[in-house]
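Notebook B, p. 112. Complex prediction, attempt 2.
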Amino acid sequence: MSPEPALIQLSGISRVYGSGDAEVRALDGVDMEIAAGEFVAIMGPSGSGKSTAMNILGCLDAPTQGAYQFMGVEVGGLSRDQRALIRRNYIGFVFQGYNLLARTSALDNVELPLIYKGIARAERRALALDALAKVGLQDRAHHDPSELSGGQQQRVAIARAIVGQPAVIMADEPTGNLDTARSREIMELLTAFNVEDGMTIVMVTHEPDMAEYAHRLIHFIDGRIASDGDPKQVN
Amino acid sequence: MLWEPIRLAVQAIFRNALRSFLTILGVVIGVAAVIAMVTVGQGSKDQVTQDVAKLGTNLLVVRPGQPQQGPGSSGGTSAAFDMRDVEAIQTQVPGVRAAAPANTRTMTAILGSRNHTTSVIGTDSRYLETRDMPVVQGRPFYESELRSGSAVCLLGQTIVRELFNGGDPLGQDIRLKTISCRVIGVMEEQGVSSFGTDQDDFVLIPIKTFQRRVAGNSDIVLIYVAVQSGVSTESAKANIESLMRERRRISPTEEDDFNVFDMKQIASVLTGITGVLTGLLSAVAAVSLLVGGIGIMNIMLVSVTERTREIGIRLAVGAQEGQVMLQFLVEAIVLSLFGGLIGILLGLALAAVGANLLRVPFSPDPLIILMAFGFSAAVGVVFGYFPARRAARMNPIDALRHQ
Ligand SMILES: Nc1ncnc2c1ncn2[C@@H]1O[C@H](COP(=O)(O)OP(=O)(O)OP(=O)(O)O)[C@@H](O)[C@H]1O
Ligand SMILES: [Mg+2]
C-alpha cells in the first residue's frame, strides 16, 4: 500500500523576476507539503513572496527552479493549456480585488468556470444559483458587481471559486479590502467549505485574527519559509 | 459546438453596448460610404454611356463656318448649304447611312391659352434615322408632305406635356408664330442628357415648311450624317470634307469654310469627365473606409485594458488560450457581420436616393458590395482578434494585473 501523494508538494522552488542587476529572487528554495483537507494560512511581510508562492501553487505562474507536484503530477513539465486544465478542474481562486467581470450579473460571473468545464446551460444555472445560495446571495443573482458591496462582491467571487467543486481554494488576501465583520463572514464561509465539503484552503493574510481560522500557519520572510506550525502557538 | 461561443459573443456584445455600437458604426460608415459612392458613380457612368449611345457614336454634324467649333456654334458668315449638298453627301460619300438637314429655330409653340418656348427643327424623315428616334404615336412625315412643305409636325414628349397636359395631341393644330400645323406624331421619350438638357423639348416640321415659312430662304445650316456601323467616322469625315471643298470650290490654299464635327469627340469628353468623377468618388469612399477602419481599430485598442483583465479572469478560471481566442474571434465576426449588413442596407438606400436626385440609373455592383463588406469585416476581425490574441498569450497573472 503506497502512501497517497500529498495534494501539493514543493521542493526547492525558486522564482526569479527580471535578470541581471534588476534580478529579484521572490522565492528562494521553498519546500512545502500540503495535504488534502488542510486549511493553511500564509503570512509574512510585504514583498516576502507570498503572492508569488500562491500564483505558483495555483498554476497561474511557473517556478524558475524546483519541482512542484500537484496531485502527484509534475506541473513544471506541463504546457500552458495543461495548466489551464488543472486550474479548471481542481483550483478555485479568490483575489483581494474580487476580479469579477464588469457589467455581468453575479449569476453569470459564477457560471463562468462552468462554461469552460463544458457543462450545459441549464445545469450551469442551477449549480451557480446553488453556489450563490451557499454564500447567502441567492437574492442578488441578477445584480451587477457595481450594485454590490465589497463584502458581497467577495462572496460572489467565493461562489465562483467553489462552484466547480475544486480540490483547493487559493485565496490571496481575500479580506484585504474588507472590515472586520465582513472579513469574519468570509472566513466563516471558507471554514464551512473546508469542513463540510473537504476543500483544501490556502490563504494569504496580513491579519493574525483571520489566520486563526486556519489550522496551520506558514510564515514567509525574504522568499523563504521562516516558520510552519499551529497558528495559535505562533501568535 | 459553435453555438455556445456565438451565444456568449452576443451576450458580450450587449454587455458592452457602447463599445459594440462604436465598432459597428465604423463598419457601417465604411461599407455604406463605399457602396453609396461607387453605386452612384457607376450610375453616372451608365447614364453617360446611354447618352452617348443616344447622341450616336457614329454621327457627324456638318455646319458652315470655320472648323474647331462645337456643333452648337453658329454658322457665322460662311455661305449656308442647300438641299443639294445634303443629297450629295447622302449619295456620294461611301458608308453614309443617312444625311438629314436640321435647321433649328427657337420659337413659341401655342395651343389655346398654353404656350411653351421650344426648338423648332426643320428636317425630313432621315432625321429620325440619324438620331435613332422612333415615332411612338401617330406616324412620320409622308413623302408628299415633305415635297409640298405641308404644315404638319412631330412633337417631343415635353411639348405633349406642356401644351396638351399629357392628353392626345394627334390631329390637333398647334401654332408656331404664324404657322398653324397639324400634329401627326409623337417621338419616343429621350430623357435628360448628362448636361441636364431636356432632349424631348422640340417640334419637328418638314424642311421645306421651315425654309418657306420660318426662314424665308432655301438655306440649310446644319446636316446630320449617320455613318453605317463598321465604317469609321474618320474616313467618312475626310470624304465629306473633300466633297464639300469641291462643291464649295475652295482652292487648295484656303481654309475650310465649314466644319464636320464628330459626336464621338463629345462622347470621349463626357466619358473622361465621368471617369474623373468616379475616381474622385472612389477616393472619398476609400477615405471613408479608412476612417471607419481606424474607428474600429481605436475602439478595439481602447478596450484592450478592460478586455485584458477579462481575459486574465477567464484564464484564471480555466479557459485555454484557444477558447479565449475563439470567443473573441466570434465576437468580432458577429459584430462585423452585423455592421456590414446595416452598412450594405444604408449604402444601397443612400445610393438609391442619390441616383434619384442626380437622375442617374441605380446600378449596384455586387462585387463592390462584397469588397467593402470584406474590408470592414477584415478590419473588425483583425483589430478585435490581435489584441485579444496578445492578451490570451499573456501570463494570466500579468493579464489580471493589467492597468
Ligand atoms: N511581476 C513581477 N516582476 C518583477 N518583480 C516582481 C513581480 N511580482 C513580484 N515581484 C517582486 O517579487 C517580490 C515578492 O512579491 P510578492 O508579490 O510575492 O510579495 P507579497 O509577499 O505578496 O507582498 P504583499 O504582502 O505586499 O502582497 C517583491 O519584491 C516584488 O517586488
Ligand atoms: Mg501579495
